[in-house]
Amino acid sequence: MTDFKRLAEKIITGKRICDKTACADMIRCDLNELMHGANRIREHFCGNKIDLCSIINGRSGRCSEDCKFCAQSKINHTGIEEYSFLPVEEIVADCGKYAAKGVDRYSIVTAGRTLDGRDLDRAAEAYSKLHQKYPGIKLCGSHGLMSENAFQRLKDAGVEMIHCNIESSPSFFPKICTTHTFDEKIKAIETAKRVGLNICSGGIIGMGETWEDRIEMALETAEIGACSIPINTLIPIPGTPFEELQQLSREDILRTVSIFRYINPEAHIRIAAGRFLFPDGGKQLFRAGASATITGDMLTTTGNNTEEDRKMLTDMGFELAAPH
Question: Closest Cα partner for 162 from 176, 177, 152, 173?
């Protein structure tokens, strides 16, 4: 059985895990030992600072894609609110609300395969105004499989990072989506990197995938060089094909976070959907290797209150950005 304390020190001094066979023991080892090593790696590479980001659902519903987990696909009948791209002033005001609460990042997220035409113009305008008004906040964008020109326009407007989840392993991806491919995801990510944008890319656990799929996803995020890796726990939504799936255990979530930290030692492992499944705001997650989280409302579900998050993390001894 692997000595995870020793493995953590090897990773700190330069070792990198590049194949799934090296992760076999992580699936069945003592969870506390695994978390202890992951936390040590997090402390070394990320320090004591927790990176907070908030998002706004900039365009909701009517998505052409058939992702089985998503409330916003037009193929799934979930009854969510649908609307076109939000007025720029509304986005600026929402960002200001989170700036006053000391978030590090702010992202507009839009439903749909891509962003182009008038909506791309609106997004560029919104990001430009956010960049001017709140220069202390780093801007991220999540707009699907965009063209190189579209990525460049967002970068020129002040966007620093593009979010494009790979969702799962290459082999499991066809079981959750058929209207675009895993390779198309990778192509979009490589295009964004080519224009100089940083990459935020992770996925969802609890969709019926195996532990091997989760490890493959972690290895893929390392391969593409993601500097931020959101880990979402599936929240089964009525009206989606996954509505009857059983909720993952807290132990499985913690183990997944730790595994991602061993494989991606320098990235921000970012807790996204599902943190409310932990009764204390997810304190254990930040002792399992996580160094970042989404705070505030999510896209179609309610997230964690930002004021409560700040108090919890501060009480744990973490450092947070000051209000802007």
Answer: 152
Distance CA 11, CA 160 (A): 28
Helix/strand/coil percent split, the chain, to 5: 40, 15, 45
Model-level pTM? Answer: 0.95
The distance from CA 213 to its chain's CA centroid, rounded to whole angstroms, is: 17
Task: Report whether pLDDT(225) > 60.
Answer: yes
Query: Helix (H, G, I), strand (E, B), or coil: what is residue 33?
Result: helix
pLDDT at 303 over 60: no
Segment 149-161 mean pLDDT: 98
Six-digit token string for 253: 């979530």
Query: CA 128, CA 109: separation in Å to the nearest integer?
Result: 16
* Torsion sign across C-alpha atoms 66, 71, 75, 81: negative
Best CA proximity match to 217, nearest among 179, 185, 251: 185
Tell me the CA end-to-end span of the chain in Å, nearest whole number: 48
**How far, in Å, CA of 38 to CA of 44, rounded?**
10
* Helix or strand run (H / E) with residue 217: helix 211-224
Please state, in angstroms and rounded to a whole number, the distance separating the CA atoms of residues 229 and 245.
24
Phi, psi of 69, rounded to the nearest 5 degrees: -90, -10
Going along the chain, which residue ranges are E strands? 51-59, 105-110, 138-142, 159-163, 198-200, 203-205, 228-233, 268-271, 292-294
Two structure tokens written together for 71: 């409330």
The string of pLDDT tens digits covering residues 99-108 is: 999 999 999 9
d(CA 218, CA 170): 11
Question: Could you tell me how many residues make up the chain?
Answer: 324
